[in-house]
Structures are given as structure tokens and as C-alpha cells.
Amino acid sequence: MATAEGQTSPKSSDDTPAQETTPHEKTPHEKTPHEKTWHGIVLQTLKRNDIRLVPYVPDRVLTTLIRNLHNDPFFTTFPAAREEEAVGIVSGAWMGGMRGAVLMQTSGFATLANVLASLAMPYQIPLIMFVSERGTLGEFNYGQSLVCRTMRPVLDSLAMEHHTATRIDEFEFIVDRSIRQAITTQAPVALILSPLLTGGKVFDK
Amino acid sequence: MNTHASPPARNTKVMNRFDLTSRLIAKLKNEEAVIGGIGNTNFDLWAAGHRPQNFYMLGSMGLAFPIALGVALAQPDRRVFALEGDGSLLMQLGSLTTIATLAPKNLTMVVMDNGVYQITGAQPTPAAAVADIVAIAAGCGISDSAWAADEDDFERLIDRSLSASWPTLIGVRIDDKPGTGTTRRDPVQIRERFMHGLGVREPL
Questions:
Q1: In terms of Cα–Cα distance, which of A14, A60, A45 is closest to A170?
Q2: What DSSP element (H or E) covers A56?
Q3: DSSP code for A70
Q4: Which of A11, B18, B37, B56 could anchor a disulfide with B41, C-beta 3.0 to 4.6 Å?
């Protein structure tokens, strides 16, 4: 998988926290693959694809990613009141020439069927969604596990591209390729962040 | 005991959506973007004369302001107008807080308020008898929110917004007439031509 990452992302060695320093200043330790985090990969891959606008409705799992996006002046990132609203914002921004992506959790995705079917799909807008997956692999709230079961059938009913990311060694490949495909084919994509990748939310408060 | 609240007292003239939309369009000289919300709002935008900088929503009720916010963020040097119905806005009141927080200097919102879902049979909205859209907007942080008293006042408020450096919202009371035209329902062409109009793309 390291080979695959190298093929899709020649600059992947820049994906460490020390990316602002020149390459000779990096120690081998900083470049070891096991130090990569899923949220670091999301941030760097968004940046590499010039995706600057990132509205979100938060999830506990997304906390570090959201904080790091706020701390990076490259990004315009802010909370929206509803996921549907965030989809409208990035759709307008894309038509105006600015790329965006939306962060949400499973229950937020469940509010989106109307906007996907009436805006993103028919207008051919490359909507990029990151969905933190609640409701499986240790869920403690029955309602969350039920709503999770609606997600993939909705995606499949619209024939929307979606991938469930479970492994850190595949993650950059999936994110980078999916973003490029969404933009070049003008079709939405949902990247589902499994608890296998993120650790999920396992405490009951 | 209080089963029916009295309608809020108003001193605003009941105007017409198509007339107001035409007055707005006549003022646009700098390729300003205009986002028309679902139904009659974009039908009247279409009827006022198609421009490449117009975007017509054919679904996604309530998203005219969020879409306009996205355009405004992407192109901060272009003035962006959003036309939305009162029933549509009720579906996405939270977006007013997002807009107030981001405070784009180039966004003007117009709410066409007739108190009814005209296109589905003119049923009253839940807000019709009790709520004030402009007060809601101000409460959400859009401090430059105002009712237009009549057509001249509407034009004055539009003119003022053209040079504002903060988001503005204009409420207009309108009659219950249906839209004047019917938008050609071709989403891909609408989107592509809008992107040409915004200078994002060249035609094939």
C-alpha cells in the first residue's frame, strides 16, 4: 500500500506535521508511515486538491480534524446549522469557482436525501462528503444504529459513489482518488469514515 | 387560553413578486449573481428576463440563501442576490446565523413574504399569523434587516445594499399571485450557464 500511495500522491512525504520545514530538516522518524493519522491525511489531501471551503456539523470523532482545519489559514471552515445547508454552501461555492467539502456524522447524512436528489445529482455538482460513521462496531445508542442502516441504501438508490475507509494504509489513496474522480466526473462522493479507521465513539456520554 | 394570536401590525404595502423582481433586475449593471429559490420565486426571476448570472433552484427547498452564501464566499468581489420565499426560509432559518457569523460583505437577501405556500394551494405557513421574518433575521444576527414599505422603498434598500460591506436582508410583503413564467427545467444547462456567467468556465 505504501507503493500505491506513492503512485497517487508523489508529495506524500509532505504529509507530516513538519511539512512547513524543508525536506532536509525532517528526521526519518517524522516520516515513518505509522505516524500518519487519518485526520492528517484528510487535511493534507484536501489541501493538495485545492479544497478550501469546509463547512461542517460536528461529530466527536471529527474534533481533531475540525480543530486543525480551523488552525490552518488555507481553509475557510465553519459550522453550519444543518448538513443540508452545508451542501448548499459548497454547491454555490463550486459554481463560483471555489472547491469545498462537507464534514458530518451518519445521522446528519440521513437528512440529505432531498438535497442529493434535487441539487447535487441533477445539477452534476461534485459534492465531496466525509461522513463519520456512527451506529456500528460498538454503538451504544439504538437510534444511531438504525439510522446508520439507512445510509448506504440511500447512496445506492441514487447510484452515488461511496467508499467506506477502514485502513490507514489505504486511506490516502481512497481520499485522493475519490476527490479527483468527483471533480473530473462532476459527481458527488461520500467517504464514510469507519470506526475501524477512526476508533469511533465508544463511550456512552 | 390564547388559541389565536393576532397578526402582527404592519405598515408595509402588499406588492407583487414579479414587479419587484423586475425592478431588481433592472438595477443590475455589474453582472451581479442572482439565486432564485424554489417555485414562484425563480419562475418570476426567469420571467424577468434570463441573465447568465441567474441560478434557478428546481428543488432543495430552503437553500437559496446557503447557495448564495457559497457564491459570495467564492467571489467576494461580485455582489450576490438571493431571492427566497417565506415558507422556504422557514425550512432553513439556521442559515441566517451562519450568514451573520461569516458576514459576507457582498450578499443581499430578499424574502418574498405572502404568508402562504402559494404553489401548493395557498395554505398558510405556520409563521403567517404570528412571526416577523425581519425580526427573526435581526435576531439571528443580520442586523441590517428591514421591511420595504413600498416599491420605492424596496428600490432604495436595494440601492443601499449594493454598496454595503455587510450582509443585508430585505423583507417584502407580496400578494398571493402565482409566478409569471415557468423556468426551463434543465438543471445541467442552468448550472453550466451560471458558471459561464460567473466567469468560472468558457462554453464548450
A1: A45
A2: strand A51-56
A3: H
A4: B37
Contact A119 B98 (CB under 8 A): no
**pLDDT (tens digit, 9 = 90+) per residue, A184-194?**
999 999 999 99
Correct CATH for B17-197 of 3.40.50.970, 3.30.565.10, 3.40.50.620, 3.40.190.10: 3.40.50.970
Establish if A30 touches chain B: CB-CB under 8 angstroms: no
Asked if residue A144 lies in contact with residue A134, where contact means CB atoms within 8 angstroms, the answer is yes
Q: Do B75 and A80 touch (CB under 8 A)?
A: no
B30 Cα to chain A: minimum distance (Å): 16
- Find the residue in A nearest to B78 (Cα): A96
Q: Locate the domains of chain B by residue range.
A: 17-197
- Please write the tens of the pLDDT for every residue from B136-146: 999 999 999 99
- The complex scores an ipTM of 0.96
Single-letter amino acid, residue B151? E
A96:B198 CB<8 A: yes
